[in-house]
Design brief:
The chain is mainly alpha-helical. The protein has 16 helices and four strands. The chain has a domain at 3-171 and 310-343. Strands 1-2-4-3 form a four-stranded mixed beta sheet.
Length: 415
């Protein structure tokens, strides 16, 4: 057995056991606090709503347990079980282009993974979400979305993959730098195209029709120095009853979008406060910081892949005998999460810090209590648990727990 095989098995085992342990902690903590509404929310959230949130979160966590086990089994089957090598051997001999063989190999693995995950997606949508009253999607719409996603992924992904494999094979030992530049350009292009080209493929966007709310929002945008292409309402209710608001795009293509479900639940002051929070991310340059960090990490990852690609032990230690640029890229993408999972608390910490900063900015621009009221309504409507396990939250949650977030909003420094 190769040394790298032992290292990989150890990393994967540690990651899998940690994920299962965290999920079990989450289930136990929620169950222990299911029958009492936290003091901070007493009188604002009813016991039955609190219990619904506990049960909804528990159901999703149990499904996550199954997903963790399936991901681990699939990864072992594809690597040490010889799955990638079997797919490579199965490719037709008439496909004599190394680049196209690589594309087919990677697409084949992605297809297998998607087919295995599809039953879980169906159960999440038509089982869990439907049982708790959130799903509004029909089977026909689910299939339509799936078909659109496949076509869009092929239209964008295949040319990108062809270009990446070509550069990996033709640009010399510093290929990773050229791939990184192409990857940056691709991501920036997607950010610009998303509001006007990609998002309308799945949802309908209409200008905000409420003149009173539009006037308030325009005044807030002027105060915050934010320019956008417009205020839009998205028909999120055709898929889910969950509500949200966001701004998308990059540069001059920025748009502000409200879910229609959000506008039916919040009053004008609360809606304005939610938008002020989103503007806080913009004013505190969180989007730029996240893009920059993604580019730095991708550069480091591509450099590491460039170092691993000539190493025989990298392939053989993961059950692959056919060495190629495509198999190197595929193996790297598949096994990296096993080695990076323990960094999750750090990325979650940064994200929660950004949420606190955006809340502080919102409280400086509008009535902080309006944001508190909006958050309580959103936690209630979205059945978000008020009592997550602290350690589970530390690993996974991009947003602070509800009690911490509201206490932070009411702290003197944000008044």
């Amino acid at each position: 057995m190769y040394l790298f095989t032992l290292i990989f098995i150890t990393a994967l085992g540690l990651t899998t056991l940690t994920r299962l342990w965290l999920a079990s902690r989450q289930l136990g903590h929620i169950r222990a606090h299911r029958d009492v509404v936290p003091d901070d929310f007493s009188g604002q959230i009813a016991l039955d709503a609190h219990q619904k949130a506990a049960d909804y979160t528990s159901a999703k966590t149990r499904l996550g347990l199954v997903n963790t086990l399936l991901e681990t089994i699939l990864l072992l089957a594809l690597t040490l079980g010889g799955g990638i090598q079997a797919i490579a051997d199965f490719l037709p001999t008439w496909l004599d282009s190394d680049i196209w063989r690589g594309v087919v190999l990677i697409l084949g693995v992605l297809l297998i993974s998607a087919l295995i995950e599809l039953p879980l997606d169906l159960y999440r949508t038509f089982g869990i979400d439907a049982r708790f009253g959130f799903n509004k999607m029909t089977p026909a719409l689910f299939l339509t979305d799936l078909f659109k996603q496949i076509l869009l992924s092929a239209a964008l992904g295949i040319p990108l993959l062809l270009g990446v494999l070509w550069m990996m094979g033709k640009m010399g030992e510093h290929w990773w730098l050229f791939v990184w530049l192409a990857w940056m350009a691709f991501n920036l292009l997607i950010l610009m195209l998303y509001p006007t080209v990609i998002a309308p493929l799945f949802n309908k966007f209409t200008p905000l029709a409420d003149p009173v709310l539009a006037t308030r929002i325009e005044a807030l945008l002027t105060k915050c120095g934010f320019k956008s292409q417009g205020l839009f309402v998205m028909d999120g209710s055709k898929r889910s009853s969950h509500g949200n608001a966001y701004f998308s795009g990059f540069g001059a293509s920025k748009q502000i979008v409200f879910f229609d479900t959000l506008l039916t639940r919040l009053d004008h002051e609360e809606t304005e406060a939610v938008l002020a929070h989103e503007l806080g991310h913009f004013k505190r340059r969180h989007v730029i910081k996240r893009i920059a960090s993604m580019f730095v990490m991708s550069l480091a990852g591509l450099w590491l892949l460039g170092w691993l690609m000539p190493q025989d032990w990298f392939y053989l230690g993961l059950g692959v005998q056919t060495q190629s640029t495509a198999s190197a890229l595929l193996l790297f993408l598949l096994v990296s999460p096993a080695f990076t999972f323990l960094f999750h608390p750090l990325t979650s910490l940064v994200s929660r810090k950004h949420e606190f900063e955006a809340d502080r900015y919102a409280a400086e621009q509008v009535n902080g209590e309006a944001l508190v009221r909006a958050l309580v309504k959103l936690y209630n409507d979205n059945a978000a648990t008020l009592t997550p396990d602290p350690l589970h939250s530390m690993f996974y949650d991009s947003h602070p727990p509800a009690s911490q977030r509201i206490a932070h909003l009411r702290a003197p420094q944000v008044q």
